[in-house]
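Two entries, shown back to back:
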Amino acid sequence: MRLKIGFIGVGGIASLHIQSLLRIDGTEIVSVYDVNKENAVKAAESTGAQVMDSAEQVLDPARIDAVYICTPQFARGNLEELAALRGIHLFVEKPLGLDMEEVRRKEQVILESGIIHSVGYCLRYLDTVQQAKAYLTGRQAHLIQAYRFGGSHPAEWWHRLDMSGGHLVDAVTHQIDMIRYVAGEFNEVEAKLGRVSFDSLQSKGSIYDAGSIAFSMEQGTVGSITESCLSPFHTASDLKLFGHDFFVYLSQNGAVLAIIDGGQNETITSAMDPYFEQCKAFVEAVTHHTQAPILSSYADGARTLAVTLAANRSSLERTAIHF
């Protein structure tokens, strides 16, 4: 029996999922929809899928078993809820939205429906991240340092804070999720976000060009996250965890792991494709109807989103936000 899959949104990130699914036996992409008809047609040509006239038309339980929702965070509407209520298993890209109350409502509907659900925090599936998580079990860092520097998304919507949430919500979310995954839950965040360069370079945008976030965690660890989406000459996506008797360093978005302690000094580079591993886990979970292979549930995605939205709020209100 083939697993029949639909896609809502077939832009850049969706293409990575499509390429991965085409490598997995027993899957068939049968329906696609995108507001950009040209994108939808290209995806259909590469997969043999049918181009549908609307997102809701994709969500036909007689036609598909599972759906990938890869629309931007401002353009989800009630798609997740519709999928859940129709018994369609759900993969949804991060970030989950821009309104925590709305996301929590969707979370409840998804959990009550019993469908398999996964959120696109693909870095969790890297063997290096898994090894870091295993090593840190039973160990506590006293300091965590993370950063992400790079360029901006070209889309106009991405440069609007009310549509993307900014670089922190849209991209740095991966580093925040990795911190949560390997080291535990956040307790408090306090952020300073600025627009020094963007103010002079673009008049229509409203996102921040840089941010500095201080935080504490439930077990007492403190740390910082530094980020910029206007860094053309230096890029980095790293996470460092300092313990009194160890140092763990995840660099290149988790693809390279270094562990140093009294008995080892080892660097490991992953050869895995996290998008493929993530898709493989989702297919396995749906096929066997179990959440077990999924490393990021909707509830997990919501908790990561809460941290990023709290940081945005902290900067606006000039105060620390507790969880």
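entry 2 starts here
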Amino acid sequence: MKVVTTARELAAEWEAGRRAGAVIGYVPTMGALHEGHLSLVDLARAECDLVICSIFVNPLQFGPDEDFESYPRPVERDLELLTARDTDVAFLPGWTEIFPGGERVLDDFGTHVSVPRLSHQLCGRSRAGHFDGMVTESLLFLNLVRPDRTYWGEKDFQQLRIIETLVADLRLPVTVVRGATRREPDGLAMSSRNKNLDPAARAISPALRKGLEEMRAQVLAGGPLPAVLAAGRERLGSLGFEVEYLVACEEEALTEVADVTGPVPVRLFAAARLGGVRLLDNIPLSGAHHG
């Protein structure tokens, strides 16, 4: 695996690949890699000739009270994991390589990109500007890597839909490939932040996934969706979760629904804090999708 740190070095890699007729696959990450990230690398490896993975903790998507400074950065371990998964190129740019002016917040950066119809619900309600920062940086990286295919996980489903919409609306010449949520043996969705859970919180954390599954079963058995969700919020709260949201939304538009009788696929979405750590999860409620 070749490690590059500048846009110039990266361009030399994808230009060589393009000249050789390679299909280029790209997996963007913020590091602290786990099997969820690595499953996307595996997908890219199976479908592409040249696999590029970036590691960059994007300051534009962190709010002033969020964990940018403390976000885990185990770079040596990450590189070992990528090497073991047969990654071709690891792109590890420094902060000023991407933001030469040293920008830390979106308002300091000259150009903003937004997908507003998908950015203000769910996580967007409590993380103002988060998705604008994410999508601005993601478009910048897509322009630097110039892949044929880019790989995104369903665990961050709102983020996935925003990237899919960005690509479709701006006619970007790249295919967005979805990767199913990867889970720990007890059902907890894999996340770089899981390591911040203390032992007591970690023992409780699988209840989020279990609760979503129970709610799905109740709704599919005929239970009224609003009542099922209200009971689910109360139950999670009794276990120690601080529920930010627990809702059912259409998959494509991410608009909340009150029932599942329509033809549009619906998912259950949850965000909750446990022991100070923010956990996300989602599962399909109707339609045929990944689990």
